[in-house]
Amino acid sequence: MRKENSTNTVNEQFLFQVCELNSAVAMISGRWKSQIVYSISQGNHRFHLLKKELTNISEQVLSSQLKELETHAVIVKKEIPNTVPAGIQYVLTNKGLALIPILESLCDWGKTYADGKEISVGPVL
Questions:
Q1: Is cis: bond before 101, omega within 30 of 0?
Q2: Higher confidence at residue 12 or residue 77?
Q3: Roughly how many angstroms between the first and final C-alpha of the chain, as a whole number?
Q4: What is the pLDDT of residues 46-91, one digit of tens each?
């Protein structure tokens, strides 16, 4: 946890005020968050299903990333009725659902341009 008046915190707050894109990117940044959101959208609503789908993620990291997504109201945790012990599922909020086409567009962009695939210079904006 950073100090409130640290240079990093002050710079982060400034960037968030300058452009909402910075806030949006911070909300979904993290190695696994976009994959988790997309996996939930594909029907992997339970912790064990997410772990099975994302084989290289540790349970600790999956748990913390889910908590962060919940904090940002991208997902909600819901109890599954009539299960013992109580079953939990993760559901995308409207905010999370609105993120899916954006993630798909970023994925398409990555397929075209990531890893130096496209190196021609475009017009300067």
A1: no
A2: 77
A3: 37
A4: 999 999 999 999 999 999 999 999 999 999 999 988 888 889 999 9
Q: At what angle do helices 33-41 and 20-28 cross, to 10 degrees?
A: 80
In one-letter notation, the amino acid at residue 14 is F
Q: Tokens in use for 86?
A: 């109580």
Helix segments in the chain, DSSP class H = 7-18, 20-28, 33-41, 47-53, 59-71, 94-113
pLDDT band for position 98 (cuts 50, 70, 90): very high
For residue 38, give Cα distances in angstroms to 43, 44, 86, 93, 98: 9, 9, 25, 13, 11
Residue intervals in the chain for CATH 1.10.10.10: 31-106
Q: Are 96 and 70 in contact (CB under 8 A)?
A: no
- CATH of span 31-106: 1.10.10.10
